[in-house]
Design brief:
Length: 342
């Protein structure tokens, strides 16, 4: 079962916290699909990290529902369960087992410096649980359980990946060379601004569109989307380089019609193209792109048993790797040591 030297293993995770939206799609999912379709030799695992999502309070049943919905969305967006391993984190209990081991290696001081922890603690003052604090340790287990060396993530996860590498180094130093030091595979996509022009596109800010959102609602949201903030009057020249709507044209117009993107840029600057028309055009392109995804998503969501079957396919593939890793890990640290025949 020797792997060829050039082969990379990719791992990434996404939390089932609700409807995936444009930010998740453009920032993560779309790139996972591109990687899958690229010729480069690698294998990839993508996990729906439900135990991470448990750090946020949710109604009973929501975790399962969101997991199935997310699975439907991932497949609808083009991830192919036959070519990549798509699975649910809690289906492979080795994640939490290795997580505990890493929690005995990670330094409190390092975790205290995590900006995501500080932000989330700030946002959830009434539920600052220990899981929120040790979140990156579980993330280390996610990645290292599969000996992944590349982790496609946004730049907000770079700090977590430093911690992941530190866990690998500490384990290796103490128990012998076992884990690689994974590197982030940063997306080329600049951090997307919300439709309201605020810093981050997120569901909690209500400034994005869900992949499953009805077309009319998407149109309505785009109609009021913030464009170049300096362009106050109708016939002012625009500044596409600072316009979020232009950035979105880059995703939805450019791939089919690169020349049109150039024309939009030029006509925006000369004020020949106004924001209202520009946004309407974006809505048309976006609906063309998202329409088929939305249809596939709805069809998949109507068949939860099939989604569970797909998750089971992923579980089997992931579990096999996880089991082998943990056998080595337990042996190296000296737990559950098999009895020697006398
Ligand atoms: N922390 C990641 C996020 O918030 C999700 C995640 C969990 C993850 N485990 C992972 C990402 C492992 C990459 C690899 O987006």
């Amino acid at each position: 079962m020797a792997e060829s030297m050039a082969k990379h293993r990719i791992f990434s995770g996404i939390q089932p916290t609700g409807e995936p939206h444009l930010g998740n799609y453009l920032g993560a999912i779309r790139q996972w699909v591109e990687q899958q379709d690229a010729a480069a030799p690698h294998d990839a695992l993508y996990s729906i990290v439900d135990y991470h999502a448990l750090t946020i309070e949710m109604d009973t049943g929501a975790l399962d529902r969101h997991t199935l919905d997310l699975m439907a969305s991932l497949v609808a967006c083009g991830l192919d369960p036959a070519r990549v391993t798509l699975f649910r984190q809690s289906d492979v209990p080795e994640h939490t087992e290795l997580g505990w081991i890493f929690s005995c290696l990670a330094a409190m001081g390092d975790l205290q410096r995590m900006t995501q922890f500080k932000d989330k603690a700030e946002q959830n003052r009434d539920n600052i649980n220990v899981g929120l604090f040790t979140y990156p340790v579980l993330q280390a287990a996610d990645i290292l359980l599969y000996h992944a060396d590349l982790v496609p993530v946004g730049d907000d996860q770079v700090q977590h990946l430093e911690l992941v590498r530190e866990c690998a180094r500490r384990f290796n130093r103490r128990f012998g060379e076992t884990f690689p030091e994974p590197q982030p595979l940063l997306s080329k996509v600049p951090r997307l601004k919300g439709l309201d022009g605020s810093a981050k596109m997120s569901k909690s800010k209500g400034n994005t569109v869900a992949l499953s959102e009805p077309p009319e609602q998407i149109r309505a949201k785009l109609k009021v989307a913030v464009t170049d903030p300096a362009r106050l009057r109708r016939n002012d020249p625009g500044h596409p380089e600072v316009c979020n709507v232009f950035t979105l044209h880059g995703f939805f117009t450019a791939p089919h019609d690169p020349a049109r993107l150039g024309a939009i840029e030029r006509d925006c600057r000369s004020a020949a193209l106004g924001c209202v028309d520009c946004k309407k055009e974006l809505a048309d392109r976006m609906l063309e792109h998202l329409g088929p995804i939305r249809e596939r998503q709805a069809a998949l969501r109507a068949r939860p048993d099939d989604l569970r079957d797909l998750l089971e396919v992923g579980r089997r593939k992931a579990a096999e790797i996880a089991r082998a890793t943990m056998e080595t890990v337990r042996e190296r640290i000296g737990v559950r040591v098999p009895r020697r025949p006398r």
